[in-house]
Amino acid sequence: MDSSQNATVGTGGNGTLPTHMNDTGAATTADDPKQNLNQVINSIQKTLGLLHQLYLTVSSFNTASQLPLLQRLNGLVVELDNMVKLSEKCNIQVPMEVLNLIDDGKNPDEFTRDVINSCIAKNQVTKGKTDAFKGLRKHLLEELELAFPDEVESYREMRAISAAESKRLAQAQSSLPNGDVKVKAEL
């Protein structure tokens, strides 16, 4: 078998890889993240199929099955190389905790559930702290109003002006490039 036949068969014996084709037969060059992920998923499924074929060949191995075994091993190596190259186009980060759970034979959804529960707990703690500070502010304003009524009234006026200015700036920032203003639906 010459090197040109070798490249079209895809055994990778001379270190070359065949051109990757999509289902329509056209070379894949798109940078669409979803398409890249689908290509990696397809490569993983193909690798699993090759591993199954390899398992069947090894489990019933005899001297006559040596050549098919080598071809399947070469096909697996080519597909693993293809998978690595396709995965470089995907920017997916998997937390190590998820991989450790999978290694331990556990469901990775447990990690998601634990993260969500942790976020809920932290949110409740933060909300409690916020409510405590609001209560302290209210109590301090009440006490200050008893001792310094004029200064507290002046403070409240400054707060109202500051709030109005902040609202005006927020509305100015939410205007569209053509001069229209985004309208928020209030329920």
Summarize the structure.
The protein is mainly alpha-helical. The protein has helices at 3-9, 33-59, 66-87, 96-103, 109-147, 149-173.
Helices, strands, pairings?
Elements: H1 3-9, H2 33-59, H3 66-87, H4 96-103, H5 109-147, H6 149-173
Helix pairs in contact: 2-3, 5-6
Sketch the major β-sheet. none
Termini separation: 73 Å
Kindly report the average pLDDT value: 80
Total of DSSP H or I helical runs spanning 4+ residues: 6
* Estimated helix fraction: 55-70%
Q: Which structural class should the secondary elements be placed in? A: mainly alpha
Poorly predicted regions are 1-29
Radius of gyration: 32 Å
- N to C succession of SSEs: HHHHHH
- Total DSSP E strands: 0
Shape: elongated
Could you walk me through the main structural features you see in this protein, from its secondary elements to its overall organization?
The protein has six helices and no strands. Among the domains are: 33-92; 108-173. It is mostly helical and 187 residues long. Helix 2 runs antiparallel to helix 3 and helix 5 (109-147) runs antiparallel to helix 6 (149-173). It has helices at 3-9, 33-59, 66-87, 96-103, 109-147, 149-173. The protein is elongated and about 100 Å long. It is found in: Nucleus.
